[in-house]
């Protein structure tokens, strides 16, 4: 795409002309092991984002969520994240099969900071700790085992700018409903009334009854 006036940055030196070197406390904050405070954060977090990329460079970011504390700390350098049944695309898992490097961001609702973990992942189909990951009778069929290589806390600037935790700024009806989006984009042959019923209250009621 040709954009008149566009100035692209293509080297590290060019990038540093715009963004100065980080202050020491920011540059040196990454660690290789979980601190007790990191474990407390994981115990309070009900949601994370998992970024992956395949050997060919194609990328994916997948949201994962369960009751707070769903991420299991196995030791100071290893965590496990249960996988619940979803749309069966397994985009991130496919990437991990060819490139095990992952980036994770753990959120706590209402908190602007995030906990970031980078490491190497393995897909596990059975382990003793699966029994500790049961939610509403649902035992995961898969889990992601992550060996930590880097961990640090990220500041709240993005959340403050976006005001994402400010209910007075929320506009959930600013875009069409999930049923209407599905009708227009994913499931054009399905009846809208059927989709609205599918994505209605019963959708949440059944999220732990589904298996692959």
Shape: globular
- Strands, total number: 7
CATH class of the largest domain equals Mainly Beta
Structural class: alpha+beta
Distinct helical segment count: 8
How confident overall, as mean pLDDT? 96
What is the makeup of the main sheet? 7 strands, antiparallel
What is the spatial order of strands in the main beta sheet? 2-1-5-6-7-4-3
Distance between the termini: 41 Å
The CATH topology of the largest domain, please?
Pnp Oxidase, Chain A
Number of domains: 2
Give the C-alpha Rg: 20 Å
Helix coverage percent: 25-40%
CATH homologous superfamily annotation of the largest domain? Electron Transport, Fmn-binding Protein, Chain A
Helix-strand topology string: HHHEEEEHEEEHHHH
Stretches where pLDDT falls below 50 for ≥5 residues?
Answer: none
What is the CATH-assigned architecture of the largest domain? Roll
> What proportion of the residues form beta strands (DSSP E)?
25-35%
What distinguishing features does this structure have?
single chain; 212 residues; alpha+beta; Pnp Oxidase, Chain A; 2 domains; seven-stranded antiparallel sheet; 8 helices; 7 strands; 26% helix; globular
Mind explaining what this structure looks like?
The protein has 212 residues and is α+β, with helices and mostly antiparallel strands. 26% of the residues lie in helices and 26% in strands. The protein has helices at 12-18, 24-27, 36-44, 91-98, 157-162, 178-186, 192-198, 201-205; strands at 47-53, 59-65, 72-75, 78-83, 101-107, 114-124, 142-154. Strands 2-1-5-6-7-4-3 form a seven-stranded antiparallel beta sheet, with helices on one face. The chain is globular and about 55 Å long. 17% of the residues are buried.
